[in-house]
Design brief:
five-stranded mixed sheet, alpha+beta
């Protein structure tokens, strides 16, 4: 059995170590230093980055925030949840999601919430297997700068 640890990132070098795994989900972020800078900015807004490490190898990464809204009360919102492609279906994503649920419970949250792209069928099967449900639609409009 592999030794599994979950670490909440504190330092830029830890953020940097998460980049190869996060890049599999956030393919539009192509520069490692841009990723580090972005995470550091987001941390000032309450973003947390955690990784699951098995025998010294980062296999899964999660980005999350603690939020409160009139709609769902206090919740842990998962911005990012990704397991390295070669490590999928090995239980690492489930282990990390269970840890996130535990974090939500420990912080008095009423729900854990996340959005998932409509094209991510494998992720949706995983979320359904963890007893999650589709509770709403997420709408978006791209804001273009005025000419």
């Amino acid at each position: 059995m592999k030794k599994i640890d979950i670490v909440v990132v504190q330092m830029p070098d830890q953020i940097r170590k998460c980049f190869p795994v996060m890049r599999e989900l956030r393919t539009h972020i192509t520069n490692e230093q841009d990723f580090v800078d972005r995470v550091l900015r987001q941390q000032k807004q309450g973003y947390h980055l955690a990784f699951l490490e098995a025998d010294g190898d980062i296999c899964a990464v999660a980005g999350y925030r603690l939020l409160e809204s009139l709609f769902s009360g206090k919740n842990l919102y998962v911005d990012d949840l990704v397991t390295r492609e070669r490590d999928r279906s090995r239980g690492f994503g489930a282990h990390l999601l269970d840890w996130l649920i535990s974090q939500a419970r420990d912080r008095g949250c009423e729900t854990l919430e996340l959005d998932s792209g409509v094209q991510r069928f494998d992720a949706h099967r995983f979320y359904f297997s963890k007893r999650m449900s589709i509770s709403s639609y997420h709408f978006r409009i791209k804001i273009e700068p005025e000419a």
